[in-house]
Structures are given as structure tokens and as C-alpha cells.
Amino acid sequence: MTSVELNKEKIKKLFIELIKEDNEVKDILADILSTDLATKKDIIDLTIAIKNLREDFNREMIALRKDMREEFDRVWDEIKSLREEMAQMRKDMREEFSKVWDEI
Predict the structure, then answer these.
(1) Is the pTM of this model over 0.90?
(2) Residues 27/16, Cβ–Cβ less than 8 Å
(3) C-alpha distances out from residue 76 to 51, 82, 83, Å
(4) Could you report the per-residue pLDDT of 50-85, keeping only the tens digit for each?
(5) Do residues 19 and 26 lie in contact, with contact meaning Cβ atoms separated by under 8 Å?
């Protein structure tokens, strides 16, 4: 197979994968294919555009997950800090009660 044939095969596989996975893509492609205006180049361009949009979406989701994880870690650290502070306050309070009890 030549590189052009391999490229065509890649595009075919991508196109089929997109159609199988996404109902919205199916509807869009059905609308385009139902007209006489759709050319092979249009379909290839559309497939590539959809692939690029999906890749962009995946990159954005990865960035959002990273941001959410960082925020979660920050909040968790704050919770741990507050727990330590509460434990210290309880310890101090027990010591004060002990002093008062000893005086009584």
C-alpha cells in the first residue's frame, strides 16, 4: 500500500469510528449526505474538523481535571490544617481543665 492509500484507510477508520460513537455526528453527516452538494473533499474536511474538535475537547478536559485536582488538594490541605488546629485546641483545653481541677 502506498502512503496515500494508508492515509485514505486512516481517514476511513476515523470516519467510521466517529459515526459509531457520536449520534450528533451521525445526524450532521446524514444531513450533508442527503444533499447533492456534498463532495468527497467536504466529507474528508468535515471528518478532520470533527477529529480536531474532539482532540481540543479532550485537551480541555485534561486541563480541567488537573485544575480540579489541584483545587481538591488545596482544600484537603486546608482541612488537614484545621484538624490539626482543632486537635491542638482540644489538647490546650484539657490542660486548662486539668489545672483548674487540680486547683479545686
Answers:
(1) no
(2) no
(3) 37, 10, 11
(4) 788 888 888 988 998 999 999 999 999 999 999 999
(5) yes
Question: Helix, strand, coil shares of the chain as percentages rounded to 5?
Answer: 90, 0, 10
Domain coordinates of the chain in residue numbers?
A: 3-103
d(CA 15, CA 31): 15
Grouping H, G, I as helix, E, B as strand and the rest as coil, residue 34 is coil
Place of cell 480541567: 64
DSSP code, position 1: -
- Residue located via cell numbers 486547683: 103
Question: Ramachandran region of residue 17, left (φ > 0), alpha (ψ -120 to 50) or beta?
Answer: alpha
